[in-house]
Amino acid sequence: MSIKNYLELKDPEYVSEKIANFVQEYVEKRNAKGVIFGLSGGVDFALVAFLLRKALPKEKILALFMGERTRIPKV
């Protein structure tokens, strides 16, 4: 059996619902106004953004873009 078989989710919708419900309950339980997370453009951060949006209205989500630092040429 390959590693792919172990990593494949049998019911991804169920898993994403469970995670979204957890996030929603956590935010409500702590009386938080919302969430802030770093967004770099990778697949992992895209998944976090998707799950947060599934859990919360967009007004309660703030993404901080974590782009690469550009090099400033020496003069």
Structural domains: how many: 1
Order of helices and strands: HHEHE
Query: pLDDT average, as an integer?
Result: 88
User: Main β-sheet, in a few words?
Assistant: 2 strands, parallel
Q: Kindly, what is the distance between the CA atoms of the first and last residues, rounded to a whole number of angstroms?
A: 57 Å
By helix and strand content, what is the structural category?
A: alpha+beta
Shape: flat
The value of Rg in angstroms is 17 Å
Helical content class? 40-55%
Number of strands: 2
Spans of at least 5 consecutive residues with low confidence: none
Give a short synopsis of this structure.
This protein has 75 residues and is of the alpha+beta class.
Description:
By secondary structure, the chain is of the alpha+beta class. The protein has one domain (11-65). It is built from 3 helices and 2 strands. It has a two-stranded parallel ribbon. α2 (12-29) packs across α3.
Secondary-structure blueprint of this entry?
Elements: H1 3-7, H2 12-29, E1 35-39, H3 43-55, E2 61-65
Helix pairs in contact: 2-3
